[in-house]
Write a structure and sequence with these properties.
By secondary structure, this protein is α+β, with helices and mostly antiparallel strands. 44% of the residues lie in helices and 22% in strands. The chain has three domains: 87 residues, Efflux pump adaptor protein, beta barrel domain (Elongation Factor Tu (Ef-tu), domain 3); 59 residues, Beta Barrel (OB fold (Dihydrolipoamide Acetyltransferase, E2P)), CATH 2.40.50; 148 residues, no CATH class.
């Protein structure tokens, strides 16, 4: 009984002793500011001048694929987890109308470039060349009128002889004046007079052409004829060259050439529209999201497939402040500690985003880094700590 009372007294004494001693203060947790998403504010610069920030591993490339023009989905050739290579067709739209348009334009081009069309173009070039040569001869003659003295002397002599022949023919005709018009002698004299007059007129016209200054109207007409013939010949040659698949200058023109070029442009546009019915992988990667099924309508701009190059990872910082970003430049070395792997890897700064965002009331900039060697076992989305500097 006394032993029991002793134990009770000891317990009571310990309780009273506890009540009288000063209490040990409870540690107050450190309050870390963050944004609405729960992200923490930037860390300070550590001693030694190096900057340490948080980061996340991201795919080197990621494409959110959508159609420029809408359509009914005919096939979906990918699912989440597929690894595809560049050029792989991921989704196909119904392309019946696009194929018909390609075939229609191809038929037009076949007609425009047929052997018969090429033969007609060759004939057009020959005709244009003949017209050009004639127009050039006439235009050049304007500049030769006063240049040849020997020719002028010759033509003057021709006029003199023609005048003499005309006078003799007129005298012979006058001597038959009393004869009937049915008389052979009078008929012969009349014919000789006509021929002599015609020869005189021709000789005089030739002389006048070389000795008289051409009128402004004549010069303008011959110049216009030459320019038109030159342009027609050039356009015919351009068109023939284009029909044969030869190169033509960028400023080449002509109605037929424009028609041919428009047909080629129409075919290119139709082929592009056909290509746009297929959603193609732009690079090697993994399909990480598929938001489409066959038979539904794919609206323009709606994201259908996400393709990520997770075989090649990069690092993006999440809390590098404006105070520290000025200490970093592209090409700087860095040490990347991947938290999940408990390993450090060497890297370097690829580029610094020129646009800032706000985190925990502070201005931060995103910096992208590349690994010197891809870390084995690392996955996109893993967190990391980045130390800038050696």
């Amino acid at each position: 009984m006394k032993k029991t009372n002793l134990i009770v007294l000891i317990v009571a004494a310990l309780a009273l002793s506890a009540c009288g001693a000063p209490a040990t203060p409870t540690p107050i947790p450190t309050i870390v500011l963050g944004d609405e998403a729960g992200n923490t504010a930037p860390r300070p610069v550590v001693s030694g001048g190096n900057v340490i920030v948080s980061a996340v591993l991201v795919p080197a490339q990621e494409a959110h694929l959508a159609y420029v023009s809408g359509g009914i989905v005919a096939k979906v050739n990918a699912k989440v987890g597929d690894r595809v290579t560049a050029g792989h067709i991921l989704v196909e739209l119904d392309d019946a109308l696009a194929r018909l348009e390609v075939e229609r334009v191809q038929r037009v081009l076949r007609e425009l470039t047929s052997p018969a069309a090429i033969a007609a173009a060759e004939q057009a070039v020959a005709n244009a060349q003949e017209s050009y040569d004639e127009a050039k001869k006439k235009a050049d003659s304007l500049n030769r009128r006063f240049a040849d003295t020997v020719t002028r002397d010759y033509l003057e002599a021709q006029v003199t002889l023609a005048q003499q022949a005309l006078d003799l023919a007129r005298e012979a005709y006058n001597r038959t004046r009393g004869l009937s018009s049915a008389n052979p002698a009078r008929a012969k004299a009349a014919t000789a007079l006509y021929d002599a007059q015609k020869a005189y007129n021709t000789a005089l016209a030739n002389l006048n052409w070389f000795t008289e200054k051409p009128s402004e109207t004549e010069v303008a007409r011959l110049t216009a004829d030459f320019n038109a013939a030159s342009a027609t010949l050039q356009e015919a040659k351009w068109y023939l060259a284009a029909l044969k698949g030869e190169a033509v200058p960028a400023d080449a023109r002509g109605a037929k050439l424009a028609q041919l070029q428009q047909a080629h442009a129409d075919l290119q546009a139709a082929q592009i529209r056909l290509q746009q019915t297929r959603l193609v992988a732009p690079f090697d990667g993994w399909v990480t999201r598929v938001d489409v099924i066959a038979g539904e309508y794919a609206a323009p701009g709606r994201m259908l497939i996400v393709l990520s190059d997770v075989d090649h990872l990069q690092v993006k910082t999440t809390d590098l402040s404006e105070r520290d970003v000025v200490k970093i430049k592209a090409g700087d070395p860095a040490t990347i500690l991947v938290d999940a792997l408990h390993q450090e890897f060497k890297g370097k700064v690829l580029y610094i985003s020129p646009l800032a965002s706000v985190l925990g009331g502070d201005v931060v900039y995103e910096v992208t880094l590349a690994f010197e060697e891809q870390p084995a076992g690392a996955l996109a989305g893993m967190t990391a700590d980045v130390t800038f500097g050696e």
